[in-house]
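Sequence, please.
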């Protein structure tokens, strides 16, 4: 199974030049705590992840330091050069990368480096839970067949 099969394809993005208050409102309106900050590579219109911005980033960098949010842009607060995984990467590789980097979400990129989705630990847990259900079903089915063949 690869990342592209389980990631969320509806991504919520913000331009790095957007005011931080705009990003915060976007988080509130869309009920998320994570935005992929995008920029376009010169000569292309493909959105590429250049950073990520979390609600925690805003609290720790802006609110806790009592910085005027009107003076900041998403690009000022975001985490630069985010860890990404490719949509054709294995789930195992994505888990290893997330664990190694200590992150709960990663942007997913296509073959040209363009943003195609976001993979979260929730997505991975849901996938793994489904795999565990398949194993449990196989065991139940084995018992049922054994019982029918050898009463």
């Amino acid at each position: 199974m690869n990342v592209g099969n389980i990631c969320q394809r509806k991504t919520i993005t913000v331009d790095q030049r957007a005011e931080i208050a705009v990003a915060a409102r976007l988080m509130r309106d869309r009920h998320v705590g994570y935005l992929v900050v995008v920029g376009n590579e010169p000569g292309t219109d493909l959105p590429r992840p250049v950073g990520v911005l979390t609600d925690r980033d805003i609290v720790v960098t802006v609110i806790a330091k009592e910085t005027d949010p009107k003076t900041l842009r998403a690009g000022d607060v975001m985490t630069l050069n985010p860890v990404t995984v490719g949509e054709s990467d294995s789930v195992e590789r994505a888990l290893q990368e997330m664990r190694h980097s200590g992150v709960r979400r990663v942007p997913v990129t296509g073959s040209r480096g363009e943003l195609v989705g976001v993979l979260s630990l929730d997505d991975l847990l849901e996938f793994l839970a489904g795999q565990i259900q398949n194993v449990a079903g196989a065991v139940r089915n084995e018992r049922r067949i054994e019982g029918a063949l050898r009463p």
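The CA atoms of residues 86 and 109 lie 5 Å apart.
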